[in-house]
Amino acid sequence: MRYEGAIYRPPSEGRSLIIQLTVGCARNTCTFCSMYKDKNFRVRALDEVIQDLEMARDHYRNTKVRRIFLADGDALIVKTADLLLLLDKIKELFPEVERVSAYGAPADVLGKSVEELTRLRKAGLLMVYMGCESGDEEVLAQVKKGVSASELVEAGIRLKEAGIQTSVTFISGLGGSERLKEHALGCAEVISKMQPDYVGFLTLMLEEGTQLKAQIDSGEFKLLDVEEILTELELLIENIDSPGTVFRANHASNYVSLRGTLNEDRKLMLADIRAARENASYRPEYFRSL
Ligand code: SF4
Known about the structure:
The protein is of the alpha/beta class. It has helices at 46-59, 80-93, 106-110, 114-122, 137-142, 149-161, 180-194, 211-217, 226-239, 266-279; strands spanning 17-20, 22-23, 42-43, 67-71, 99-103, 125-133, 165-172, 198-203, 246-249, 258-261. It is globular, with a radius of gyration of 19 Å. It comes from Ohessyouella blattaphilus.
């Protein structure tokens, strides 16, 4: 396998074989993100990617490969015909694979019809991770996400209709103090309309070299303190209506670790937040990371 630059994958893909289908992020505009700032976006030549699959098969000839993750940030930007060809090749070389997954930018999901997504699911693409970040139009515009809240909802619904499992992420604190309430309620609304399989709630962390870091340094944007983060989280959990969705805010960036299934665990999660507040038991700043 050959990898270009730093490779990112969701925590749940820690044991997956990673195959780099694209390099970088096609948009690269989000003010809080530094992941692919050093890469010029391109789709890798398909024959190169197939060679990587063959090299991986050779390397893992005595090991069963159960999961494959297609990196980098925009696998779904690739033409459907090429993705289908690749998924067929994966089946041929790794008949034991149980799941192929990828990051899917909302705009790229919307670039495919339900019928195309269904064909991809039937060919083995069973999970798409989609970064939503916020459900508030103003926050989405401020952080230059490049999509509206209604487009996020539409992308989530399209994946669901195609039978592809969806794991979506949002960022706590992204609206700062000024949009705390709108951000929490907007996220709750988008999640309730999408009804995804999994929701991950990270907490904003500052990364050097990002536009957001410069906005904080200049005083243009104010980071939330722990109390405000918990208020935002409470507001969010109180207002989501998405039965069956697995909710996780147990990432290393979160001050309080929460996990539950909506809506049945709502009260338990709210009680966990209250207990953390009463006992001031938060993850220390020096232990937080991305
Ligand atoms: S958050 Fe996602 S879409 Fe935005 S710049 Fe980073 S990788 Fe690209």
